[in-house]
């Protein structure tokens, strides 16, 4: 295949555009924010799980407080009933039984109130844990949102750079002869890098030096011959730097 040397040099611009597009894609896949988001999501979920545990413990203890409150209310109501019976003039035997029951109720009420106080103190501590867990969840979600925002900004910048570079690439590719462009695209699909500058004896695509025989063949080729690297298959673009 033959192509004007000036046209062949345009392949270097095309290769540079493709290299930049590859870097953009690599950058998109390896944004540090992507890993940070994964960690932040795990942290946020862990904090949510901790909140659920704290809320469950608080709810369980809250039910226990209400149960004790009900029992205390029942004891007090029974005590009031007994006192009302005594005030109404109960018989001697009934009066003795009522007095005994009042003593029992007083002891039971004391025990229940002690339990109630202890459980309420525990509930206060658990309520503080719930508040702390809610704050931790909010902080973790805020951190996640901040990283996601940075990721979105970075992706927008990359999309802008990609669109600009693709536009430049299209202009270069459309200016090439059809057969040369097709060869370039075929090599790029197979090898990744399709063209490189020959610098001395080194291929600019694979960075490998050509052996003496291959180098002589390249140098003896006509200026408009399209020559390729024997190592990587890329089109070797020859300029003054190639001598």
UniProtKB/TrEMBL annotation:
Keyword Coiled coil set for record: yes
InterPro entries linked to this entry: CT398_CC_hairpin (IPR056003), Oxidative_Scav/Glycosyltrans (IPR052376), Zf-RING_7 (IPR003743)
Keywords: Coiled coil
Superkingdom field: Bacteria
Start and end residues of each C4-type zinc ribbon domain: 202-236
Coiled-coil ranges per UniProt: 51-164
Protein name: C4-type zinc ribbon domain-containing protein
Native species: Saccharopolyspora phatthalungensis
């Amino acid at each position: 295949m033959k192509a004007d040397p000036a046209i062949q040099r345009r392949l270097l611009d095309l290769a540079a555009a493709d290299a930049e597009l590859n870097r953009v894609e690599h950058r998109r896949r390896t944004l540090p924010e992507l890993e940070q988001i994964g960690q932040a999501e795990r942290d946020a979920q862990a904090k949510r799980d901790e909140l659920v545990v704290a809320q469950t413990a608080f709810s369980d203890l809250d039910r226990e407080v209400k149960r004790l409150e009900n029992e205390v209310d029942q004891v007090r109501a029974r005590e009031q009933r007994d006192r009302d019976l005594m005030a109404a003039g109960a018989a001697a035997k009934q009066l003795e039984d009522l007095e005994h029951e009042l003593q029992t109720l007083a002891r039971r009420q004391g025990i229940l109130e002690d339990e109630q106080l202890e459980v309420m103190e525990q509930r206060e501590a658990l309520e503080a844990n719930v508040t702390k867990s809610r704050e931790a969840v909010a902080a973790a979600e805020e951190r996640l949102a901040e990283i996601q925002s940075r990721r979105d900004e970075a992706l927008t910048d990359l999309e802008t750079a990609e669109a600009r570079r693709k536009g430049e690439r299209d202009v270069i590719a459309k200016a090439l002869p059809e057969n040369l462009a097709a060869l370039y695209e075929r090599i790029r699909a197979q090898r990744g890098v399709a063209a490189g500058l020959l610098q001395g004896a080194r291929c600019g695509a694979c960075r490998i030096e050509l052996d003496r025989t291959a180098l002589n063949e390249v140098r003896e080729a006509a200026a408009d011959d399209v020559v390729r690297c024997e190592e990587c298959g890329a089109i070797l673009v020859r300029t003054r730097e190639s001598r």
